[in-house]
Write a structure and sequence with these properties.
3 domains, alpha/beta, five-stranded mixed sheet, Immunoglobulin-like, eight-stranded parallel beta barrel, TIM Barrel, 32 strands, 19 helices
Length: 690
Amino acid sequence: MGNTSTAVRTPRHPRARPRSPVSRSRRETHSTIRCRISFDGHELRKWSASVRRAPGGKAAGRKAGQSVSVSRPCVIDVLLPISRRAVPGRAAVGRAFPRGLLRRFRVNSRSVMAFRHGSKGTSRRWVGLVVGGLLALLVGPGAVAQGAAAAEPSAVRGAGDTRAAMDAVAAMQPGWNLGNSLDATGGDETSWGNPRVTEELLDNIRAQGFNSIRLPVTWTQRLAPDHTIDPAHLDRVEEIVDWALADGFHVMLNIHHDSWEWIADMPADRAGVLARYEAIWTQLADRFRDADPRLTFESVNEPQFNGSSGDAENAELLDVLNTSFHRVVRDSGGGNATRLLVLPSLHTSAEQPRLDELAATFDALDDPNLIATVHYYGYWPFSVNVAGGTRFDDTATADLTGAFDRVHDTFVARGIPVIIGEYGLLGFDRHTGTIQQGEKLKFFEFLGHYARAKNITTMLWDNGQHFQRTGFRWNDPELFAQIASSWTTRSGTASSDQVFSARSAPIADASLTLHPNGTTFTGLWHGDTELTRGADYTVEGDRLTLTAAALTRLSGDREYGVNAVLHARFSSGVPWRIDLITHDTPVLGAATGTTSAFAVPTDFRGDRLATMEAVYDDGTNAGPHDWTPFKEFDRAFAPDYDAGATTLTPEFFAEVDDGSRVTLTFHYWSGTTVTYHVTRSGTSVTGAPA
């Protein structure tokens, strides 16, 4: 994530039609197809290959019979003779040459790159090498023709080629971000408040069930004027990478906050930005050239540009960055010739125009070892609790399914793996309490389920607010239990995790709607005691009703607050917690203060604050986000239950008209509302109950 939270909304347009994966083969010749062969041996000495030409192109590769010596593992493209009547997609190659067989071979050397790319003038017209004798020994003379005859042109990009990448990305699920450490922009990795990263921390994260770790790194403050990375810093990054690999993690290493610190200035300084960017990746590619293939590189985090002319220029600039990153890494040879590389959309957005732009880059690069990445922080009003977005409702759900569907249809369905490189809720940047507990649990439960359904790998953003970096415990074990469960199964939930009973009124039956999510409700429990169906509760369809008798017994002396905790159990997943809460209408008191320090005395009386409206006497909206009367939780207002107060922030008063009375309506989770008046006069503020 960047240092600010913004929501980018762009208009949609029909997706660009993907180019056929066989189009280039058709341009070259109707008698050849492309395949990829890898050789495990460190050296393959003296082998011969015939030459084929593309129509109108120059010969690529060596003359037949000439010896070629290579000394390091890599991948080369070759062309195989097939029937002129069949022009298959690459899927045919995957069927003709079983995956296990192909993995037994490997070729790699910088000299091979000449065969792939040729000179600058012929880089897109090379055809490749024919290794017919070798292939005949491996699969027999009829295998190619048989596989080719069975194939049909496919819109799936490199179905056979990308299978290894798809499998690798699937193996990365689930993932975790080491946020606000190496990406901190201060003097060192502790400058944003997190302790120094230790091997023990990574051991403990691995023990939580995570299979991959994203290492965000900001390089700006560690660069010399000639763009050389501080050797000590690079050594430190390598040390953490090595710890992670030794723990069995897949690792994603990137350029992080540099995106907004200086890469964003690319519209005004293309040459300077590109030189710096390529210098960083050249050094990283060299340092990790022979690292374990479980190390992946991500070109840049959340790319963005300042002062551009608009979408077209933004797309072109990001394409330049992603393409230059790809070239620098691939040209470095060694393991980087086939290392998995991760390319983001603009802003790592899942909006269709941004996905189409990224898909065009993938088509142009035509590399099976690429991964697409976007970030997902939920429907923005829900993600930060603004504009009345207090619940994970149908609108918030549709935002998630729409984003994941678009990503799946644009990439996964075409054989291109996708990683949600960061996910969470933006309100967590303040604290995890900005979103009500039950609603956030439903969000994470559904996100994990839908990511699985769409074959998308996810990486939880954790800047220190989730897993304790030295205590090695989850700050919210209930939240993590829901997240971890979602990796493998669904959990039942309900319309709420709270049942309120007013102390000032007789206790009555109370109902919730169960959301089994494909599971089966099995019972209701209070601690280790199973409640009695019929006497303590009833279930009709998905409607769970707690009887007045059970509520009376469980609520005890009915002090304000949570009197009892129940758990609805389902046939799979984690149980759904239900708090039984006694409350009465909150009482607010008069107050005086300043725009920098103002709090409404509040006797919450067991209730919990959901949101706040702010309007002037003429009905227009007051305060920040004046397009909605509902203000942002914890930015405009915040409850302090221990202190018995509701704080109105300086941010709120900064956008309140001087001398104009504002009517505040506080909405509580019980359904109760209370109104209050505040008036700002210069820096002074007065308030009183309505």
